[in-house]
């Protein structure tokens, strides 16, 4: 048996732990092999990759990023993409392909499996924690820890200068990182994409806090957060929308809109910190290493069971399987009951 593996989409702490687990478990069987494709689907279509063995994955458990490289994009974007994938798997004698990716990569994997009969198993990953069908994705815990550490540090400098710190975190259209890091870091307020914010109410919260003699405010905002009355409302000056090569809106910079609005409304100095790609890099937490390892081990079991079109997922504390089709066009959003409880209890 020869298993192919690729990492697709944005990089994420824990990817190497999955690859390592797949290699170690697969090669326990005499004659079984793992072939790693470079640069996601590009590597599959171009037949670029490398045979992986124990030596290949030695020392990779604590490493961030992916030893295979990653790209966005899909074989479905070109007229001959699917045929090239089929030819590659046949030429390289790949019996099954493990796709480690987020919503986009898993959707592509499900289409190739369900509509074109390719032997594909999925492993969900993303720091955004927004994949439907699983209770958690590896990478999320690391991103939250990095953001929490930054919030803790920024509290002290904000307090020293009686400033408002507006901290922008990743997450795209889901507020998981903002909510969890904001809770853990004791944020004054948390803004998430799932709940449109009112800049005037936010300003009142900040002003009331400072007027009571409590130094500093820390506002944690998800990059996809939007104002209550729509973009451009309440006098907010928003940048023009931009899109990447794959048609996805480029998010970010909302903190640069919020901070001057808070200063204008409250009279308090407001500063912006965008954590950016640091949330995706570096050493994964122990939780993410364990979850990623469990996913990798379970992916090999799924291949052996010929559970193609399925992905391994976390339900409670159990690793189970779900159809990759559940990810198509969907996104897992935050628990609004928890958000409202946190907002009512701590904001202000």
For the sheet with most strands, the description reads: 5 strands, mixed
Distance between the termini: 59 Å
Task: Classify the helix fraction into a percent range.
Answer: 25-40%
Shape: elongated
Provide a count of the helices: 11
CATH topology of the largest domain: Rossmann fold
Number of strands: 11
Site (Important for substrate specificity): 104
GO molecular function: 6-phosphofructokinase activity; AMP binding; ATP binding; diphosphate-fructose-6-phosphate 1-phosphotransferase activity; fructose-6-phosphate binding; identical protein binding; metal ion binding; monosaccharide binding
Pathway: Carbohydrate degradation; glycolysis; D-glyceraldehyde 3-phosphate and glycerone phosphate from D-glucose: step 3/4
Pfam families: PFK (PF00365)
Q: Can you give me a brief rundown of this structure?
A:
Keywords: ATP-binding, Cytoplasm, Glycolysis, Kinase, Magnesium, Metal-binding, Nucleotide-binding, Transferase. This protein is 39% helix and 17% strand. It has helices at 15-26, 41-46, 54-57, 81-91, 103-116, 140-161, 176-184, 199-211, 254-266, 286-304, 336-346; strands at residues 2-7, 33-37, 49-52, 96-101, 120-124, 164-169, 189-191, 217-222, 270-274, 310-315, 318-323.
Q: What brief labels describe this structure?
A:
348 residues; alpha/beta; Rossmann fold; five-stranded mixed sheet; four-stranded parallel sheet; 11 helices; 39% helix
């Amino acid at each position: 048996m020869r298993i192919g593996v690729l990492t697709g989409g944005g990089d994420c702490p824990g990817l190497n732990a999955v690859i390592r687990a797949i290699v170690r478990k697969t090669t326990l069987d005499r004659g079984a092999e793992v072939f790693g494709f470079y640069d996601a689907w590009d590597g599959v279509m171009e037949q670029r990759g490398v045979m992986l063995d124990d030596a290949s994955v030695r020392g990779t458990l604590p490493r961030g990023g992916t030893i295979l490289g990653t790209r966005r994009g899909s074989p479905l974007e070109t007229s001959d993409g699917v045929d090239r994938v089929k030819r590659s798997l046949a030429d390289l004698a790949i019996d099954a392909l493990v796709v480690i990716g987020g919503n986009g990569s898993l959707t592509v994997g499900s289409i190739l499996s369900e509509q074109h009969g390719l032997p594909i198993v999925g492993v969900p990953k993303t720091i955004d924690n927004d994949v439907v069908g699983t209770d958690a994705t590896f990478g999320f815990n690391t991103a939250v820890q990095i953001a929490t550490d930054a919030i803790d540090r920024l509290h002290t400098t904000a307090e020293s200068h009686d400033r408002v710190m507006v901290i922008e975190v990743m997450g795209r259209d889901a507020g998981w990182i903002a909510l969890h890091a904001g809770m853990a870091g004791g944020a004054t307020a948390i803004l998430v994409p799932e709940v449109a914010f009112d800049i005037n109410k936010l300003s009142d919260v900040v002003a009331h806090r400072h007027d009571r003699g409590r130094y500093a405010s820390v506002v944690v905002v998800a990059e996809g957060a939007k104002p209550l009355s729509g973009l451009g409302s309440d006098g907010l000056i928003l940048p023009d929308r931009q899109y990447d090569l794959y048609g996805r809106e480029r998010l970010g910079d909302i903190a640069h809109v919020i901070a001057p609005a808070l200063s204008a409304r409250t009279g308090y100095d407001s500063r912006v910190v965008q954590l950016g790609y640091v949330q995706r890099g570096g050493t994964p937490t122990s939780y993410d290493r364990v979850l990623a390892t469990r996913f990798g081990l379970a992916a090999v079991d799924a291949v052996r069971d010929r559970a193609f079109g399925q992905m391994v997922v976390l339900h409670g504390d159990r690793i189970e399987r779900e159809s990759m089709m559940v990810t198509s066009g969907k996104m897992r959003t935050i628990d609004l009951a928890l958000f409202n409880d946190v907002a009512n209890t701590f904001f202000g």
